[in-house]
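Continuing from yesterday's entry. The apo prediction looked reasonable, so today I'm repeating it with nicotinamide-adenine-dinucleotide included to see how the binding region is handled. Same sequence as before; SMILES copied from the compound registry.
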Amino acid sequence: MSLDGKRLLITGVITKDSIAFHAAERAQRQGAQVVLTSFGRVRRMTERAAQRLPEPVDVLELDVNKDEDLAAVADELRSRWGGVDGALHAIAVAPEDALGGRFLTAPAESAAQAFQTSAFSLKALAAALAPLMGDSGSIVGLDFDASVAWPIYDWMGVAKAALESVSRYLARDLGPQGIRVNLVSAGPLGTVAARGIPGFEQLAALWQAQAPLGWDIADPAPVADAICFLLSDGARAISGEILHVDGGFHAIGAPAQPDRA
Ligand SMILES: NC(=O)c1ccc[n+]([C@@H]2O[C@H](COP(=O)([O-])OP(=O)(O)OC[C@H]3O[C@@H](n4cnc5c(N)ncnc54)[C@H](O)[C@@H]3O)[C@@H](O)[C@H]2O)c1
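Holo prediction written out below.
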């Protein structure tokens, strides 16, 4: 599998633990050209991480909720590369009162914020980049299985359910232009976003007990490899798909050895 010559926009890097950092690293090793995005006060952190890639890259300003930032990123990619072949959406956030067991008390504005930044933003990014993709492209987002309810995930889980639906509608509307839209549904990984969810360890422990292949919350490499696959021409007939990279957890209803739970 190769990403030779692919021009990729990668959002969602804060630190070198970020899933998107590992995707960028592996994409470069497979021959891709990469730029990162970040915004506001975390931008300095992203810039530090960008220096730690095999080839240091630029960081463009992008608050995915700002139309002017999306337009500026599109203009920059047009003048830099003349187009773009793929993008990773690795963006999610929910206000504190919408997570951690506060499902019944979270206010509508907090749920709406989680939806806008974590789900609607996939549409916003795709619509901004589609005109730069010519007659083919690949957009990949990051999911946490939203087909069931989880402890603590609350309105972030509802936002992920929306993300799954948004990706299908995008696959419908952008397919005729040759643009594919897919999600990788990852098992829990110990990133900044994940550690911000109170009770994250609880979810992580479930994986250790139930994933038939086992699961290492400190190893984002398998998720990064799946992202690179979906960005590559090897996935040219795949769209509207949710690819589970979770050690097989999603296929199993209960731990095979309940005493390990
Ligand atoms: N870590 C996990 O356990 C796990 C599991 C499944 C899916 N995911 C998903 O992976 C993706 C990346 O998360 P991560 O775990 O690498 O954490 P992370 O904290 O490293 O990345 C989250 C990113 O979202 C960005 N972001 C937040 N608001 C934004 C905005 N308005 N505009 C632009 N960017 C914004 C942050 O700057 C950050 O880079 C998220 O969609 C997350 O839900 C994570």
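Comparison notes:
- Residues 11-14, 18-20, 38-39, 42, 62-65, 90-93, 117, 142-144, 186, 188-189, 191-194 surround nicotinamide-adenine-dinucleotide (CB under 6 Å).
- The chain is about 40% helix and 15% strand.
Will overlay with the apo model tomorrow.
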